[in-house]
Amino acid sequence: MHKVVQPKALYFGTPVVLVRSVNEDGATNLAPMSSAWWVGRSCMLGLDATSKTTENLIRDGDCVLNLASADMVGAVDRLALTTGSEEVPEHKANKGFRYEPDKFSAAGLSPIPSDIVNAERVAECSVQLEAKVAEMHVFGAPYAECYAIEVSVLRTHVAEGLLVPGKEDHIDPVRWDPLIIKFTEFFGGDKNVHPSSLARGWGMRHEGTGVLQPEAYA
Ligand SMILES: Cc1cc2nc3c(=O)[nH]c(=O)nc-3n(C[C@H](O)[C@H](O)[C@H](O)COP(=O)(O)O)c2cc1C
Question: Could you list the residue ranges forming a coiled coil in this record (predicted)?
């Protein structure tokens, strides 16, 4: 038996990506996002039209897609309610977002140079994809003002520990534990690994479901 419902979000479970992009002054921005999927050497990113990352990718197509593993959830959550836009858009201010010019310090992460693109990589991420924007499409109307931004992956960096021994082109799916976001909640393996600031900002109500609650914050 199925029921017709209107879920607040259709976020059924996707990996968390920390996107590095270049600001107008040459500094780099860092933002968590998860509406991402890959085919061949291309990736499609679903991004809010008002984000600094979107503004940067429209102006300068260089970026790095840093894939977060489940053990990086603390750093991701520290970035959850931040934006690199000095003027915080109203819909974000209402959810408790603040302007953060130095996302690396805020998250406790370390930048390392890329080989090809201007944006730096995130050292702590086991998978880092250097990429450039290929195409942009308006997306999400009438419920959201977004862009679907297609990027071409130019270089892939993978932590050696994730490679199948003796096979340079084969990532071991058992050793790779991506941080997955499901309906604004963080999962690694099949476990809910951290309370979610994003869920708090969105006013998601998960009481009684076993999901980690904001009261669990230190
Ligand atoms: C785990 C996680 C996943 C997110 N996924 C997306 C997403 O897929 N698309 C999006 O536009 N924003 C997403 N956000 C919200 C952005 O991080 C937010 O819009 C942020 O302000 C962007 O930063 P920027 O303005 O500096 O680019 C996500 C946030 C978190 C914590």
Answer: none
CA of 206 from ligand 1 middle (Å) equals 20
Give the chain's domains with CATH numbers: 14-216 (2.30.110.10)
pLDDT in tens, 125-173: 999 999 999 999 999 999 889 999 999 999 999 999 999 998 888 999 9
Q: Which residues does a 6 A CB cutoff place in the pocket of ligand 1? A: 16, 29, 31-35, 46-48, 51-53, 76, 80, 83-85, 92, 97, 181, 198
Q: Which of 52, 130, 36, 126 is nearest to 89 (CA)?
A: 52
Q: How do residues 6-50 score in pLDDT, each as one tens digit? A: 988 899 999 999 999 999 999 999 999 999 999 999 999 999 999
DSSP class of residue 162 equals G
Q: Which atom of ligand 1 is nearest to the CA of 45?
A: 8
What is the spatial order of strands in the sheet that 127-139 belongs to? 28-33, 17-22, 62-67, 127-139, 146-158, 42-48, 36-39
